[in-house]
Structures are given as structure tokens and as C-alpha cells.
């Protein structure tokens, strides 16, 4: 069976020009993209990358591609990332990996933010199939949990726990991670602001009106979607 994520990553190669600064998220589609850039992109040696995840950074280094810390960069030409699901306005739910804060920072630095994946990622309207992930300052954990439960009384809210340490899972930024499973997806515009405004919330995993394009592939071929 064809790997549609690989096909979408291949289609993204044509967006890359010489000397660009490129941000990358995480996931299997992005892994394909890194390998394709290393193997097939004639500009590879001139590119500079910023990465949201340790795994992506490791692969970039292993493929001898140049990586800079995001803190040293003012802007990016392009940001590529996968997602769990996106809608017709290109609002995306992300972060099985709990790394959405850095991903959102990189997305906000880019002239173009391109979502990549197979066609299963697209839903006309975001639905409740995936949780909203909230990164929370440790000292604000209980108050944010209380306020979120008040805001979304029907939702199931669970803190991510470490499988190895019998304690809280700590994010790359030293914070707590909480998954909010809705029974019905709230209005995206309201959700975006409502959760972000709770003191102690570092960032949530709804990428509202940030992506500028999506490239998805399926049995029918490659589709480029604009908001
Ligand atoms: C990481 C993500 C990933 O982009 C998302 O899980 C998609 O991964 P894949 O390309 O393997 O489908 O949101 O936070």
C-alpha cells in the first residue's frame, strides 16, 4: 500500500528554495520530509533548520543538515508540521507528543506554515476525536485543572503521567501536560482564547488560524488546501 504521508512530504519539497530557514515539527511525515531533503533537495547544504523536538533534531544532525536553536532566529521562511486533525480553515489539533508550545512558537515565526499528512487528517469541522493538550506551569496545575473543569463540565480531563517514574510527565519545558477530551468540540475561536487566558497555562494545542496551507495525499493523489 502506498505511504500517503511520504507522498505529501515529497510534494512539500517543491516549496523549498535556496538559503531558506525552515522550521520542522515532529511525527512520521516530518521524518519522511527530513530524509527527502537530505536525499533529494539540491539546496540542502544551503538550508538552516529549527526543530521543535529532540527526535527531529537528532535526525537532522544524523543527515548532516544544519540546525540552529530557535532562540537565535528572528524568523523562518517556512514551517512544516503534521497534526492530529485539521479543518477547512486549517485550524489544527496537535501534540500527541506534548511539544505544541515550541511547535506554535516556530509556526508563528514563519512566513508560511504548511501542514502535511495523509488525507485522514482532514475533517471539515474539528471533532472530538482528539484531545486538546494544555501545557501548564507546575505551580498552577490544580487551579488550571479546576478552572478547566468549570469551563468544560462534560469533558474528561486527565494529567499525563510518566510510565517509568510513577509521577507526572514533565514536558520538554519543565511543565505539566493535561489532555482535555471533549464530548463535543467547542467553537475553535472561543476555545483558542478561553484556555489561553487561564493564568498558568503556557500554551494549548489548538493551532487557530496559523497554518497557511495544507498538503495531504490519499488514493486520489495530492491535494493542496488553502484556508
Ligand atoms: C506532534 C504532532 C505530529 O505532527 C502529529 O502527531 C502527526 O504525526 P504523523 O505525521 O506521524 O501523523 O502533532 O506534536
Automatic annotation (TrEMBL):
<dbReference type="InterPro" id="IPR037171">
    <property type="entry name" value="NagB/RpiA_transferase-like"/>
</dbReference>
<dbReference type="GO" id="GO:0004751">
    <property type="term" value="F:ribose-5-phosphate isomerase activity"/>
</dbReference>
<dbReference type="Pfam" id="PF06026">
    <property type="entry name" value="Rib_5-P_isom_A"/>
</dbReference>
<dbReference type="GO" id="GO:0009052">
    <property type="term" value="P:pentose-phosphate shunt, non-oxidative branch"/>
</dbReference>
<protein>
    <recommendedName>
        <fullName>Ribose 5-phosphate isomerase A</fullName>
        <ecNumber>5.3.1.6</ecNumber>
    </recommendedName>
</protein>
<dbReference type="GO" id="GO:0006014">
    <property type="term" value="P:D-ribose metabolic process"/>
</dbReference>
<dbReference type="GO" id="GO:0005829">
    <property type="term" value="C:cytosol"/>
</dbReference>
<dbReference type="InterPro" id="IPR004788">
    <property type="entry name" value="Ribose5P_isomerase_type_A"/>
</dbReference>
<keyword id="KW-0413">Isomerase</keyword>
Amino acid at each position: 500500500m502506498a505511504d500517503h504521508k511520504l507522498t505529501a512530504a515529497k510534494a512539500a519539497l517543491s516549496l523549498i528554495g535556496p538559503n531558506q530557514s525552515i522550521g520542522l515539527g515532529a511525527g512520521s511525515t516530518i521524518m519522511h520530509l527530513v530524509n527527502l531533503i537530505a536525499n533529494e533537495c539540491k539546496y540542502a547544504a544551503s538550508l538552516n533548520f529549527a526543530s521543535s523536538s529532540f527526535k527531529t533534531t537528532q535526525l537532522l544532525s544524523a543527515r548532516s543538515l544544519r540546525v540552529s536553536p530557535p532562540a537565535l532566529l528572528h524568523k523562518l521562511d517556512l514551517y512544516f508540521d503534521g497534526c492530529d486533525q485539521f479543518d477547512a480553515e486549517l485550524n489544527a489539533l496537535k501534540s500527541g507528543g506534548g511539544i505544541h508550545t515550541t511547535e506554535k512558537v516556530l509556526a508563528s515565526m514563519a512566513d508560511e506554515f504548511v501542514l502535511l499528512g495523509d488525507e485522514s487528517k482532514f475533517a471539515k469541522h474539528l471533532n472530538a476525536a482528539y484531545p486538546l493538550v494544555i501545557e501548564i506551569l507546575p505551580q498552577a496545575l490544580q487551579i488550571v485543572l479546576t478552572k478547566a473543569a468549570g469551563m468544560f463540565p462534560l469533558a474528561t480531563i486527565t494529567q499525563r503521567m510518566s510510565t517509568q517514574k510513577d509521577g507526572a510527565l514533565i514536558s520538554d519545558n519543565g511543565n505539566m501536560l493535561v489532555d482535555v477530551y471533549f464530548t463535543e468540540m467547542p467553537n475553535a475561536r472561543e476555545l483558542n482564547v478561553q484556555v489561553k487566558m487561564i493564568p498558568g497555562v503556557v500554551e494549548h494545542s489548538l493551532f487557530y488560524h496559523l497554518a497557511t496551507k495544507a498538503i495531504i495525499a490519499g488514493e486520489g493523489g495530492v491535494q493542496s488546501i488553502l484556508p
